[in-house]
Amino acid sequence: MISHPSRHCTVELQALPSRIGQVRRIVSAQLRYWHLDPLIDRAALGVTELLTNVHRHAQPDKVCTVEIELLLDRLTVSVHDHDPRLPEVRDVEPSATSGRGLAMVAAVSESWGVRPDGESGKVVWFTLPTAPAPVAAPARLPRRTAEKPAHRFVEVEVDGHRAGHAPARSTVAG
Asked: In the 8-state DSSP scheme, what is residue 122?
């Protein structure tokens, strides 16, 4: 597949906590460059959760590749690691301090999934739509049409004479 270089970004890393923060900043910067600012928070959260899973669970190593790709109206974020075991969405106790990562990815994304990558591991991915959902336009009031323009001020005649402009007056107590 040939991809436009400005629409594809790949980062290889070892999924350590300090590197996860760096990749989150790289993803955010790339989305700003592509003018996809509204997607930054969801993409950064999703990639953080996927990299945290690599850090916590991947065997034999923590080496992985993050790929973000913009095709038409979809942003796809994927993480490839060397562990062939597929992740599972688990039910967790309300008091649990971990185990909700994939559920969060599912909540912030349009779609997500995992696919084996032969003997070399797996790819976990999620997509975000780049176009906002259509919003119904607010109803507009009909424009007022008149044969002659409406006047804001009315000229007043006092004792048969047109009232002139009187100077402004103010009283200052002091």
From this structure: E
